[in-house]
Amino acid sequence: MTISTEIFNARSWLFAPGDSVRKMEKASDSATDVAIFDLEDAVTESEKPKARGMVADFLKSRTDDHSRFWVRINPLDGPFALADLVAVVGSRPGGIMLPKARGRADVELLNNYLSILEVAADIEPGLIKVIALVTETAEAMFTTGDYAGAPRLVAMTWGAEDLAVALGASDNKGADGDYGFTFQMARSFCLIGAAAAGVAAIDTIQSDFRDLETLRKRAEQVRREGYRGMLAIHPAQVDVINAAFTPSDEEVMTAQEIVDIFAANPGVGAIGYKGGMLDRPYLSRAQALLKLAGR
């Protein structure tokens, strides 16, 4: 199966509770690339019916680009997901976040629901995209490599908190503050799975929204590893995330030099550069960075 080389480009994905108009407005008016109106964890069971209507009405009230307004529904194997979709699809969200995805079959089922609801609402088929949370259950850890070609899927992300609950872990971090081995493995599985599927890998949240320096370091590190963006829980995190996932002028200049030197020497497999040798993987990485930077 041929995987598209066009990767969905969104650096920051900011959550806002679906039962708070004020917080949805704040997220929408921020610099986030994607605002996610949450009907799952941020809303209690008793408030979910009310929140569905609030999210649908809020989407209808916005006259700006709906492609950046997404909705996190409840898990497909629970009692709320279909009601969530029926409530919000007609308001034309740009995408749906699918929590606790157990594998490709869940994305295919979500696609079936969306296809029917788009027709009913006279919406262009396939307009609504999907990001899947792929490591929130134990069984899902074994299916992160199965998403290639999944309909509507443009991004994959992972979750450490629900995975800790699923595993019976008392904490997902060690004494040094870093994720424990199993949770670092989940992050890696998400990254590798997204690469195999040809979609964007999005890192999970940092729960301490006040520690922006740690956020910056982490975001810069995961971008070096291949992640394309990060989830956020507070507007204060958005600018830090956007900056970390935007190539610097120096990075762009170096990448352009590498592309230019290979272009000036067609047919050469390896070439000298600043005292070292570059081969074709360096060229591929330089081209990818320039594409990410919009050059």
From TrEMBL:
One Pfam family from the record: HpcH_HpaI
Cofactor: Mg(2+)
InterPro entries: Aldolase/citrate-lyase_domain, Citrate_lyase_beta/mcl1/mcl2, Pyrv/PenolPyrv_kinase-like_dom, Pyrv_kinase-like_dom_sf
GO molecular function, one term: magnesium ion binding
Entry binding sites for substrate: R72, E136
Annotated HpcH/HpaI aldolase/citrate lyase domain residues: 11-235
Residue positions binding Mg(2+): E136, D162
Keyword annotations of the record: Lyase, Magnesium, Metal-binding, Plasmid
SUPFAM superfamilies assigned: Phosphoenolpyruvate/pyruvate domain
GO biological process: oxaloacetate metabolic process
Entry similarity comment: Belongs to the HpcH/HpaI aldolase family.
Protein name: CoA ester lyase
Native species: Sphingomonas paeninsulae
